[in-house]
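re the bet — no i am not wrong, look at it urself. input seq straight from the record:
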Amino acid sequence: MLIFALDRHDQPLAQAVAEELDVDLAPHEDRGFEDGESKGRPLVDPRGADAYVLLGLHGGPETTPHDKLSRLLFFIATLRDHGAARVTAVLPYMAFARKDRRTQPFDPVSQRYLAQLIEAVGTQQVITLEAHNVAAMQNAFRCPTQHLPVHAVFGALAAELQTAGRIVVASPDPGGVKRAQLWQQDLAQQLKRPVGFAMLDKRRSEGRSEGATALAGDVRDAVVLLVDDLIATGTTLQRAALALRAAGARRVLACAAHGLFIAPAADTLADPAIDQVLVSDSVPAFRVPAEGALRDKLRVLSCVPLLASAMRESHRAWLR
């Protein structure tokens, strides 16, 4: 098993995954040219190897998602060109997934184009954490995919919620209903008691959220786990939290797999309607101010065991 980490900001995550798997990260050269081009090459012979390339496709602080995608494609192609038996793209955060269908004339379907590009360079498997739309992702790819649900990262919360009273898992919009229901079902099994479900309505036009005001479900006196795939500006979760509070929720925990925290997220999520913000470490929290309300209420849970387990089982299956 060879594991490559292509971005230095993903290095801590990749190093932790490698340690969990009891292997060393495979060395590679990443050479930049004055005009902005780069060259990546493995510094070990990949011939016949089961190779895993870990790269989160989030932007910043030095590179854009487009830069990272280019680096990923060229490196995977290089591994295949030099005889790697199988290459798996491990994408803790998969960019370009929010545009998974056409909603306006001449819209792109970026999720499908991303899949075509990744497959075209010889990628034989993709592992990712909490896709924006699981069904769209699985339909876009023709190679095998492993989708790791975010509620598996938040499983450690179950012990803390044992004495929390009534629990409700809520989706901030109709598109996230299945994500919330899966966590609701899993949490009910862990707690061995009923867990409620709620959903809010949100409409989006020209990239702007029109509001999350219509609530379906009873949240009165409940601790509400408000779950989404990602946090960008935080507006969706803030509006949902305000609606939940207005409906009588006792506490609101805003949970997401990926914390992008685009400005003005630090101010938006400081809203007292949100008691705590929980994310995985799929994206480094480099945009979160070192001090302030968001930093105080932010809690980062590790997705390392989940990624490592998926890679371990994949490798064992390949060896068989």
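see?? The domain at 151-301 is CATH 3.40.50.2020 (Rossmann fold). told u. also Residues 78 and 118 are 13 Å apart (CA to CA). so pay up
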